[in-house]
Write a structure and sequence with these properties.
binds 2-oxoglutaric acid, Jelly Rolls, four-stranded antiparallel β-sheet, alpha+beta, eight-stranded antiparallel β-sheet
Length: 290
């Protein structure tokens, strides 16, 4: 890598995000695209796919498929792309210890003609299980694929747990201003979750966005690059105005420091990568990085 790992991590900790170009070769991204297409086609061909209802597994934008939830749970062969040595090294250096999956990931595809756009938000939840399902009111949480999305004000935070986890976004296609690139507000992750500022209605976050939106950065990135960001980095993305047929795929998952424990909650144990620390895999073409 041209830039040192410590330089990258320093920039990540200052800005809240970084993009590392040329992590994957075109051949690797061709293969990942094939796996993603195969999962979507297989899911579309029946009402449920690998135990998940297709209509909740796939999200639509106009007549395009724009999200594939539970990405690495259903596209098992794609998991190896999360094990690239450079990805694991950056995560372990930034989080200071071995890392495990905090989410099975989602593929986001801004297909030209789709109307998918996302307003400014933080990814301020953890996917967790209660020790006793009968002891909680499930309606107070977002329930998805057998687990709960637990928000910062629904857990005891004796430190900012969101600084102990990072989103990894594999840019399977080029990300451009025209095709619905991810936008971020640099440094916003340092605010922590806005809900902990007493912001139950979103007003404080909106005021922050208004004051800082002129500083927004478009994460324009090449095919095969990887963007890392802290979950409380404010981010958004507009619709694609690119030429017909253009895809803008990105595969995003969250990794956490393996030692974090949230009092009163448990990490899901039904998917091995959420339990066993990730190790770098061999077999990647490391030449694009050198
Ligand atoms: O890929 C996108 O356009 C949006 C992704 C996003 O908002 C998220 O990962 O939370």
């Amino acid at each position: 890598m041209h830039t040192s790992i410590s330089g990258l991590v320093n920039s990540l900790q200052t800005q809240g995000f970084i993009t590392v170009e040329n992590v994957f070769s075109d051949r690797e991204m061709d293969d990942f695209t094939r796996l993603l297409n195969q999962s979507i086609e297989e899911a579309l061909s029946s009402e449920s796919y690998k135990g998940r209802p297709t209509d909740t597994l796939l999200g639509r934008a106009n007549d395009t498929v724009w999200t594939l939830w539970e990405l690495y749970g259903v596209c098992e062969e794609g998991l190896r792309y999360t094990r690239h040595p450079a990805i694991i090294e950056i995560l372990e250096t930034a989080l200071g210890e071995p890392v495990v999956h905090a989410s099975p990931g989602t593929m986001f595809d801004k297909v030209a003609g789709g109307d998918a756009s996302i307003g400014w938000h933080q990814d301020s939840f953890f996917i967790m299980d209660p020790p006793d399902w009968d002891a909680i009111d499930v309606s107070k949480y977002r329930y998805q694929f057998g687990h709960l999305h637990v928000r910062p004000n629904q857990m005891n935070m004796d430190e900012d747990y969101y600084r102990k986890s990072l989103i990894v976004r594999i840019n399977v296609d080029e990300q451009t201003s025209e095709n619905g690139v991810l936008r971020v507000l640099p440094g916003s992750y340092l605010e922590g979750p806005f809900e902990l500022h007493g912001d139950q209605t979103g007003k404080i976050q909106s005021a922050y966005v208004e004051a800082h939106k002129s500083e927004a950065i478009e994460c324009v990135a090449g095919r095969g690059s990887v963007t890392f960001y802290y979950p409380t980095t404010l981010h958004s993305s507009g619709i694609s105005t690119a030429a017909a047929g253009t895809h803008r795929r990105a595969a995003a998952h969250r990794m956490r420091a393996s030692s974090i424990r949230v009092p009163g909650w448990e990490w899901p144990t039904d998917w091995t990568p959420g339990v066993i620390a990730a190790e770098a895999e061999a077999g990647f073409d490391l030449s694009p990085l050198s």
